[in-house]
């Protein structure tokens, strides 16, 4: 549940609102290509990341005290990294800003998942989700004024 909540937070708390606002403000000529890229092309990695995460979470819940297999650890780390890469691409396309926290979190998730060979699956999952939550919290704090302005309308 914590993983799903973290993925929801990463998507719906601010990013979806900002993307919607950018689309409304775009010229009629630019709106179509922007919508296609943000809500189609850049959502493919997000969906793939969710699927990979779901595979790893399922494997973790089957045997939480056994280590995840190598494939399970890659699915977990890459799932989070690929999910976050969709946001990185979308943010850059919409506002020409790099989402450094999300890039760092994606890399850290892969590294942690790969290096935690032999660790209980539940611990590996908790570490990777901790990285995701920490990155979103840092991003939230860093962008607090922008987030408040966007949410206010």
Give an account of the 3D structure.
- The protein has 153 residues and is mainly α.
- It is built from 8 helices and no strands.
- The two termini are 30 Å apart.
Major sheet size, sense and barrel closure:
none
H and E string: HHHHHHHH
Can you give the mean pLDDT?
A: 90
What structural class do helix, strand and pairing data support?
Answer: mainly alpha
Count of extended strands: 0
Please supply descriptive tags for the structure shown above.
84% helix; mainly alpha; single chain; 8 helices; 153 residues
Secondary structure layout plus pairing:
Elements: H1 2-12, H2 15-25, H3 28-41, H4 43-62, H5 70-95, H6 100-115, H7 121-142, H8 144-152
Helix pairs in contact: 1-7, 2-3, 2-5, 3-5, 4-5, 5-6, 5-7, 6-7
Task: Describe what is shown at a glance.
This protein has eight helices and no strands. The chain is mostly helical.
């Amino acid at each position: 549940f914590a993983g799903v909540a973290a993925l929801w937070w990463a998507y719906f708390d601010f990013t979806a609102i900002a993307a919607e606002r950018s689309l409304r403000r775009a010229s009629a000529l630019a709106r179509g290509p922007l919508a296609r890229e943000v809500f189609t092309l850049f959502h493919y990695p997000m969906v793939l990341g969710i699927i990979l995460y779901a595979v790893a979470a399922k494997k973790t819940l089957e045997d939480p005290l056994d280590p995840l297999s190598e494939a399970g650890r890659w699915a977990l780390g890459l799932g989070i990294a690929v999910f976050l890469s969709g946001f990185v691409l979308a943010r850059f396309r919409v506002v020409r800003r790099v989402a450094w926290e999300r890039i760092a979190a994606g890399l850290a998730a892969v590294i942690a998942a790969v290096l935690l060979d032999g660790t209980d699956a539940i611990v590996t999952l908790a570490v990777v989700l901790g990285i995701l939550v920490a990155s979103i919290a840092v991003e939230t704090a860093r962008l607090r004024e922008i987030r408040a302005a966007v949410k206010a309308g």
